[in-house]
Amino acid sequence: MKQDIINVKSISQLHGIFGFGKPTHPLISIIDVSTWEIPEQFIGVKYTSELYIIGLKDKSCGLQYGRNPYDFDEGVLFFTAPDQVQSVSKGQQINEIQGWMLFFHHDLIRNTPLGRTIEDYQFFTYDVHEALHLSDAEQETITGCKLMIQNEISERIDNHSQTVIASSLELLLNLSRRYYERQFNTRSAQNSDVVSQFHSLLNSYFKSGKFVETGIPSVEYFSDKIHLSGNYLSDLLKKETGYTIKDHVNNFIIEKAKTLLLSESETVSGIAYSLGFNYPHYFNRLFKSKTGMTPQEYRKLN
Protein backbone atom coordinates (compact mmCIF):
# COMPACT_ATOMS: atom_id res chain seq x y z
CA MET A 1 0.00 0.00 0.00
CA LYS A 2 1.33 3.47 -0.87
CA GLN A 3 2.70 5.66 1.89
CA ASP A 4 0.65 8.69 0.83
CA ILE A 5 -1.92 9.90 3.31
CA ILE A 6 -5.28 8.28 2.60
CA ASN A 7 -8.34 10.46 3.15
CA VAL A 8 -11.39 8.48 4.24
CA LYS A 9 -14.41 10.51 3.17
CA SER A 10 -17.30 8.18 3.98
CA ILE A 11 -18.47 5.17 5.95
CA SER A 12 -18.63 3.13 2.74
CA GLN A 13 -15.02 3.97 1.92
CA LEU A 14 -13.95 3.04 5.45
CA HIS A 15 -15.63 -0.36 5.16
CA GLY A 16 -14.08 -0.92 1.76
CA ILE A 17 -10.52 -0.15 2.88
CA PHE A 18 -10.61 -2.39 5.93
CA GLY A 19 -12.87 -5.10 4.52
CA PHE A 20 -15.77 -4.65 6.94
CA GLY A 21 -18.48 -5.52 4.43
CA LYS A 22 -21.39 -3.36 3.36
CA PRO A 23 -22.47 -0.87 6.08
CA THR A 24 -26.05 -0.96 7.34
CA HIS A 25 -26.21 2.85 7.48
CA PRO A 26 -24.49 5.32 5.13
CA LEU A 27 -23.45 7.80 7.83
CA ILE A 28 -22.63 5.76 10.95
CA SER A 29 -21.03 2.43 11.72
CA ILE A 30 -19.98 0.47 14.82
CA ILE A 31 -17.14 -2.02 14.48
CA ASP A 32 -16.46 -4.88 16.90
CA VAL A 33 -12.71 -4.52 17.41
CA SER A 34 -12.29 -8.23 18.16
CA THR A 35 -13.24 -9.00 14.54
CA TRP A 36 -10.84 -6.42 13.08
CA GLU A 37 -7.75 -7.96 11.53
CA ILE A 38 -5.05 -5.49 10.53
CA PRO A 39 -2.53 -7.01 8.07
CA GLU A 40 1.06 -5.89 7.65
CA GLN A 41 0.38 -3.77 4.57
CA PHE A 42 -1.48 -1.26 6.75
CA ILE A 43 1.45 -0.74 9.15
CA GLY A 44 2.90 2.76 8.86
CA VAL A 45 0.23 3.97 6.47
CA LYS A 46 -1.08 7.41 7.42
CA TYR A 47 -4.66 8.39 6.89
CA THR A 48 -7.14 11.08 7.80
CA SER A 49 -10.90 10.89 7.74
CA GLU A 50 -13.93 13.11 7.60
CA LEU A 51 -15.45 11.00 10.36
CA TYR A 52 -15.81 11.43 14.10
CA ILE A 53 -14.51 8.41 16.02
CA ILE A 54 -15.43 7.14 19.49
CA GLY A 55 -13.56 4.05 20.64
CA LEU A 56 -13.58 1.78 23.67
CA LYS A 57 -10.64 -0.65 23.90
CA ASP A 58 -9.13 -2.85 26.55
CA LYS A 59 -5.41 -2.48 25.76
CA SER A 60 -2.81 -1.27 23.29
CA CYS A 61 -3.90 -1.79 19.71
CA GLY A 62 -1.13 -0.19 17.69
CA LEU A 63 -3.15 2.83 16.67
CA GLN A 64 -1.34 6.14 16.65
CA TYR A 65 -2.92 9.57 16.56
CA GLY A 66 -0.53 12.32 15.46
CA ARG A 67 2.70 11.76 17.39
CA ASN A 68 1.19 9.82 20.28
CA PRO A 69 0.61 6.06 20.35
CA TYR A 70 -2.38 4.50 22.04
CA ASP A 71 -0.61 2.45 24.71
CA PHE A 72 -3.02 1.87 27.60
CA ASP A 73 -3.28 -1.48 29.39
CA GLU A 74 -6.87 -1.03 30.51
CA GLY A 75 -10.21 -0.06 29.06
CA VAL A 76 -10.48 3.57 28.10
CA LEU A 77 -12.74 5.68 25.92
CA PHE A 78 -11.11 7.94 23.34
CA PHE A 79 -12.41 10.44 20.81
CA THR A 80 -11.07 11.65 17.49
CA ALA A 81 -12.31 14.58 15.43
CA PRO A 82 -12.20 14.71 11.62
CA ASP A 83 -8.95 15.59 9.81
CA GLN A 84 -6.58 14.22 12.45
CA VAL A 85 -3.67 12.19 11.07
CA GLN A 86 -3.74 8.56 12.19
CA SER A 87 -1.63 5.50 11.51
CA VAL A 88 -1.15 1.87 12.52
CA SER A 89 2.16 0.90 14.16
CA LYS A 90 1.57 -2.86 14.42
CA GLY A 91 -0.66 -5.57 13.02
CA GLN A 92 -3.67 -7.03 14.79
CA GLN A 93 -5.13 -10.52 14.85
CA ILE A 94 -8.78 -11.48 15.30
CA ASN A 95 -9.75 -11.61 19.02
CA GLU A 96 -6.47 -9.95 20.00
CA ILE A 97 -8.23 -6.76 21.15
CA GLN A 98 -11.66 -6.36 22.75
CA GLY A 99 -13.86 -3.31 22.37
CA TRP A 100 -15.67 -1.29 19.75
CA MET A 101 -15.23 1.73 17.54
CA LEU A 102 -18.03 4.02 16.45
CA PHE A 103 -17.60 6.13 13.30
CA PHE A 104 -20.02 8.80 12.14
CA HIS A 105 -20.10 11.55 9.53
CA HIS A 106 -21.14 15.10 10.39
CA ASP A 107 -24.00 14.86 7.90
CA LEU A 108 -25.66 12.45 10.34
CA ILE A 109 -26.17 15.24 12.89
CA ARG A 110 -26.15 18.32 10.67
CA ASN A 111 -29.83 19.18 11.15
CA THR A 112 -30.05 18.15 14.80
CA PRO A 113 -29.34 19.95 18.10
CA LEU A 114 -26.12 17.91 18.40
CA GLY A 115 -24.96 19.26 15.07
CA ARG A 116 -25.01 22.76 16.53
CA THR A 117 -23.08 21.82 19.67
CA ILE A 118 -20.66 19.09 18.56
CA GLU A 119 -17.70 21.48 18.71
CA ASP A 120 -18.42 22.11 22.40
CA TYR A 121 -17.23 18.58 23.20
CA GLN A 122 -13.58 19.51 23.30
CA PHE A 123 -12.42 16.01 24.18
CA PHE A 124 -12.64 15.19 20.46
CA THR A 125 -9.39 17.15 20.16
CA TYR A 126 -7.64 15.75 23.23
CA ASP A 127 -4.47 13.76 22.64
CA VAL A 128 -4.92 10.01 22.88
CA HIS A 129 -2.94 9.83 26.13
CA GLU A 130 -5.65 12.04 27.62
CA ALA A 131 -8.32 9.39 27.04
CA LEU A 132 -11.17 8.82 29.48
CA HIS A 133 -10.59 6.03 32.01
CA LEU A 134 -13.92 4.42 32.90
CA SER A 135 -15.05 2.54 35.97
CA ASP A 136 -16.90 -0.73 35.35
CA ALA A 137 -20.24 1.00 35.98
CA GLU A 138 -19.38 3.90 33.67
CA GLN A 139 -18.22 1.51 30.98
CA GLU A 140 -21.50 -0.40 31.23
CA THR A 141 -23.50 2.81 30.86
CA ILE A 142 -21.50 4.01 27.85
CA THR A 143 -21.79 0.60 26.23
CA GLY A 144 -25.55 0.77 26.81
CA CYS A 145 -25.68 3.95 24.74
CA LYS A 146 -23.64 2.26 22.04
CA LEU A 147 -26.06 -0.67 22.00
CA MET A 148 -29.03 1.67 21.55
CA ILE A 149 -27.32 3.20 18.53
CA GLN A 150 -26.32 -0.21 17.23
CA ASN A 151 -29.87 -1.51 17.46
CA GLU A 152 -31.18 1.55 15.67
CA ILE A 153 -28.78 1.33 12.71
CA SER A 154 -29.44 -2.37 12.32
CA GLU A 155 -33.15 -1.66 11.82
CA ARG A 156 -34.77 -0.29 8.70
CA ILE A 157 -34.17 3.47 8.38
CA ASP A 158 -37.32 5.57 8.80
CA ASN A 159 -38.25 9.20 9.46
CA HIS A 160 -37.27 8.91 13.12
CA SER A 161 -33.89 7.21 12.70
CA GLN A 162 -31.76 10.35 12.51
CA THR A 163 -33.38 11.88 15.60
CA VAL A 164 -33.07 8.72 17.68
CA ILE A 165 -29.45 8.09 16.66
CA ALA A 166 -28.40 11.71 17.20
CA SER A 167 -30.08 11.90 20.62
CA SER A 168 -28.40 8.64 21.66
CA LEU A 169 -25.04 10.00 20.52
CA GLU A 170 -25.68 13.20 22.44
CA LEU A 171 -26.44 11.20 25.59
CA LEU A 172 -23.21 9.25 25.18
CA LEU A 173 -21.23 12.48 24.78
CA ASN A 174 -22.91 14.19 27.74
CA LEU A 175 -22.15 11.18 29.93
CA SER A 176 -18.54 11.29 28.74
CA ARG A 177 -18.34 14.96 29.67
CA ARG A 178 -19.60 14.08 33.15
CA TYR A 179 -17.08 11.26 33.51
CA TYR A 180 -14.25 13.53 32.36
CA GLU A 181 -15.15 15.97 35.12
CA ARG A 182 -15.00 13.10 37.61
CA GLN A 183 -11.60 12.16 36.21
CA PHE A 184 -10.38 15.71 36.71
CA ASN A 185 -11.66 15.59 40.30
CA THR A 186 -9.95 12.30 41.15
CA ARG A 187 -6.65 13.65 39.87
CA SER A 188 -6.77 16.90 41.83
CA ALA A 189 -3.25 16.54 43.27
CA GLN A 190 -1.77 15.93 39.84
CA ASN A 191 -3.85 18.75 38.40
CA SER A 192 -2.57 21.16 41.07
CA ASP A 193 0.95 20.45 39.87
CA VAL A 194 -0.12 21.28 36.33
CA VAL A 195 -1.70 24.57 37.49
CA SER A 196 1.52 25.50 39.32
CA GLN A 197 3.57 24.61 36.27
CA PHE A 198 1.34 26.74 34.07
CA HIS A 199 1.69 29.81 36.31
CA SER A 200 5.45 29.30 36.50
CA LEU A 201 5.68 29.20 32.71
CA LEU A 202 3.59 32.35 32.40
CA ASN A 203 5.75 34.26 34.87
CA SER A 204 8.97 33.06 33.26
CA TYR A 205 7.67 34.05 29.84
CA PHE A 206 7.08 37.60 31.07
CA LYS A 207 10.36 37.94 32.97
CA SER A 208 12.39 36.75 30.01
CA GLY A 209 10.96 39.52 27.82
CA LYS A 210 9.14 37.18 25.46
CA PHE A 211 6.01 39.34 25.52
CA VAL A 212 8.05 41.90 23.60
CA GLU A 213 10.04 39.42 21.50
CA THR A 214 7.32 37.01 20.40
CA GLY A 215 4.03 38.48 21.62
CA ILE A 216 1.34 37.11 23.91
CA PRO A 217 1.92 33.39 24.61
CA SER A 218 -0.36 31.06 22.71
CA VAL A 219 -2.28 28.05 23.96
CA GLU A 220 0.13 25.89 21.97
CA TYR A 221 3.10 27.37 23.84
CA PHE A 222 1.79 26.09 27.17
CA SER A 223 0.49 22.79 25.83
CA ASP A 224 3.87 21.99 24.27
CA LYS A 225 5.73 22.80 27.50
CA ILE A 226 3.35 20.83 29.74
CA HIS A 227 2.85 18.00 27.21
CA LEU A 228 -0.93 18.18 27.18
CA SER A 229 -3.22 19.09 24.32
CA GLY A 230 -4.42 22.68 24.35
CA ASN A 231 -8.07 21.86 24.94
CA TYR A 232 -7.32 19.31 27.67
CA LEU A 233 -5.05 21.79 29.49
CA SER A 234 -7.62 24.57 29.15
CA ASP A 235 -10.41 22.33 30.45
CA LEU A 236 -8.21 21.19 33.35
CA LEU A 237 -7.46 24.79 34.31
CA LYS A 238 -11.14 25.69 33.99
CA LYS A 239 -12.05 22.84 36.33
CA GLU A 240 -9.37 23.69 38.89
CA THR A 241 -9.44 27.49 38.82
CA GLY A 242 -12.57 28.56 36.98
CA TYR A 243 -10.53 30.14 34.18
CA THR A 244 -9.33 28.89 30.80
CA ILE A 245 -5.79 29.43 29.46
CA LYS A 246 -6.91 32.55 27.62
CA ASP A 247 -8.58 33.88 30.77
CA HIS A 248 -5.42 33.33 32.82
CA VAL A 249 -3.21 35.07 30.26
CA ASN A 250 -5.57 38.04 29.95
CA ASN A 251 -5.87 38.39 33.72
CA PHE A 252 -2.09 38.25 34.03
CA ILE A 253 -1.74 41.00 31.40
CA ILE A 254 -4.26 43.22 33.18
CA GLU A 255 -2.52 42.86 36.56
CA LYS A 256 0.86 43.66 35.02
CA ALA A 257 -0.68 46.59 33.16
CA LYS A 258 -2.12 48.05 36.37
CA THR A 259 1.29 47.91 38.01
CA LEU A 260 3.03 49.50 35.01
CA LEU A 261 0.41 52.22 34.68
CA LEU A 262 0.92 53.32 38.28
CA SER A 263 4.65 52.78 38.73
CA GLU A 264 6.11 54.03 35.45
CA SER A 265 5.88 57.13 33.31
CA GLU A 266 5.80 54.99 30.15
CA THR A 267 3.08 55.88 27.68
CA VAL A 268 0.07 53.61 27.34
CA SER A 269 1.29 52.65 23.88
CA GLY A 270 4.68 51.69 25.32
CA ILE A 271 3.06 49.59 28.03
CA ALA A 272 0.85 47.89 25.44
CA TYR A 273 3.95 47.02 23.40
CA SER A 274 5.75 45.64 26.47
CA LEU A 275 2.79 43.31 27.06
CA GLY A 276 2.80 41.87 23.57
CA PHE A 277 0.39 44.18 21.73
CA ASN A 278 1.50 45.57 18.39
CA TYR A 279 -1.59 47.77 18.25
CA PRO A 280 -2.48 49.75 21.42
CA HIS A 281 -6.19 49.84 20.67
CA TYR A 282 -6.36 46.06 21.21
CA PHE A 283 -4.76 46.54 24.62
CA ASN A 284 -7.15 49.41 25.42
CA ARG A 285 -10.13 47.25 24.46
CA LEU A 286 -8.99 44.34 26.65
CA PHE A 287 -8.22 46.61 29.60
CA LYS A 288 -11.61 48.29 29.45
CA SER A 289 -13.44 44.98 29.12
CA LYS A 290 -11.75 43.75 32.32
CA THR A 291 -11.76 46.92 34.44
CA GLY A 292 -14.58 49.05 33.05
CA MET A 293 -12.23 51.94 32.24
CA THR A 294 -9.50 52.78 29.76
CA PRO A 295 -5.83 52.61 30.78
CA GLN A 296 -5.69 56.43 30.77
CA GLU A 297 -8.74 56.63 33.02
CA TYR A 298 -7.28 54.05 35.40
CA ARG A 299 -3.98 55.95 35.62
CA LYS A 300 -5.71 59.27 36.31
CA LEU A 301 -8.10 57.78 38.86
CA ASN A 302 -5.26 56.23 40.85
TrEMBL record:
Highest taxon listed in the record's lineage: Bacteria
Keywords, comma-separated and alphabetical: DNA-binding, Transcription, Transcription regulation
Listed Pfam families: HTH_18
Keyword Membrane tagged: no
Cross-referenced SMART domains: HTH_ARAC
Matches recorded under Gene3D superfamilies: Homeodomain-like
Keyword match Plastid: no
Domain HTH araC/xylS-type span(s) in chain numbering: 196-301
Protein name from the UniProt record: AraC family transcriptional regulator
Annotated organism of origin: Pedobacter alluvionis
Lineage: Bacteria, Pseudomonadati, Bacteroidota, Sphingobacteriia, Sphingobacteriales
